[in-house]
Amino acid sequence: MVELDLQIPAAIDPFAEAQDSAGTKAKVHIRVQQRNGKKCLTTVQGLPDDFSYEKILKDVKKDFCCNGNVVDDKELGKVIQLQGDQRKNVQAFLVRSNLAAKDQIQVHGF
């Protein structure tokens, strides 16, 4: 008989890569989540805590004509939520306003 050495992959956790090891640059994660129908929600997580999330949200809402809020999650910390698919817009905004470098931003989604 022939023995097969198979490895069964474990479940993939989409937030596992957000847990950076100590000493490395923290990444800013921009994700899109499908709501119902064609509605979607953009989330931004991983910004440093010394930034004012409310001021960033105010500028983003004004620039992109969308609504949003700041959610304080126990596991993920503060997360900015925006209406619609704003991944490219938020990435350009963070680079333009020097809040994060382009190599620190990771865009997830479709």
From TrEMBL:
- SUPFAM superfamilies for this protein: eIF1-like
Q: Which Pfam families match?
A: SUI1 (PF01253)
Would you say which domain of life the source belongs to? Eukaryota
Q: In its UniProt record, which GO terms are filed under biological process?
A: regulation of translation
Q: Which residues form the SUI1 domain?
A: 28-98
Q: Which UniProt keywords apply?
A: Protein biosynthesis, Translation regulation
What are the GO MF terms of this UniProt record? mRNA binding; translation initiation factor activity
Q: Which family does the similarity line name?
A: Belongs to the SUI1 family.
- Briefly, what is this protein's role? Probably involved in translation.
Protein name in the entry: SUI1 domain-containing protein
